[in-house]
Amino acid sequence: MKDATALPRSLLVLGGTSEIALATARRLIARRTRTVWLAGRPCVALENAAGSLRALGADVHTLAFDALDPESHEAVLGKVFAEGPVDLVLLAFGILGDQAHDERDPARAVQVARTNYTGAVSAGLVTGRALQNQGHGSLVVLSAAAAERARRTDFIYGSSKAGLDAFAQGLGDALHGTGAHVMVVRPGFVRTRRTAGRPRTPFATTPEAVATAIELGLRRGAETVWVPGGLRWVMAALRHTPRAVHRRLAP
């Protein structure tokens, strides 16, 4: 039976303009969530996102947060937890980069890695410890199906997500038994504004579908969620495909 009490009353979003994160926030507000913190770089889009959630009846705050400034994470995120318990942290920031350009420009490639992995390690450790200290709460980490095996066409992004995925799994093991819980979400290609114009791949999904999967995963207390669910078996097969064969597969 689905348990509504598994859903959060308070939500901290790291990456407050993410379409997946906002779809998830809307869904959770419709269920149980009443307080939302949207953390991200100050911009019009962040304020507009906050306004759209306030219109749904939530008490919404914005927070200046920069994934690329890990030295600030403990102080910035600590302010949120000082206001009261946080039931759910959604780690949703990240960049796709542009493989064709980034592999010829190491500085741009490093920017992808710093955002998707280094920044997430810092934010994940800070929020994971805070959830542990309060004795309850979930950290949901948006990984990607690309984390399972790097492809020629996205190995910079894919490798950054592979590092994030491994980190999140390890953090979940470290927090097991403390009352804090980590759930890794691995969607396939998600149709959003930032992926517009990119070739679609099989098992493409939407922010709303990912939000639905996150809700169901929270209700079940899941540790790993694939979106769509069948992608799990496809990626398991690709993961064990001989490398010579994998090179010849369509990207």
What can you tell me about this protein's structure?
By secondary structure, this protein is an alpha/beta fold. The protein contains 9 helices and 7 strands, in the order βαβαβαβααβαβαβαα. It has helices at residues 19-31, 44-54, 73-83, 99-102, 106-134, 155-175, 207-220, 231-239, 243-248, and strands at 10-14, 35-40, 59-64, 88-91, 137-142, 180-187, 224-227. The protein has a 7-stranded parallel sheet, with helices on both faces. Helix 2 (44-54) links the parallel strand 2 and strand 3. Helix 1 (19-31) crosses helix 7 (207-220), helix 3 (73-83) packs parallel to helix 5 and helix 5 runs parallel beside helix 6 (155-175). The longest helix is centred in the middle third of the chain and has 29 residues, at 106-134. The radius of gyration is 18 Å and the shape is globular. It starts with 9 loop residues before the first strand and ends with a helix. The relative contact order is 0.14. The mean pLDDT is 90.
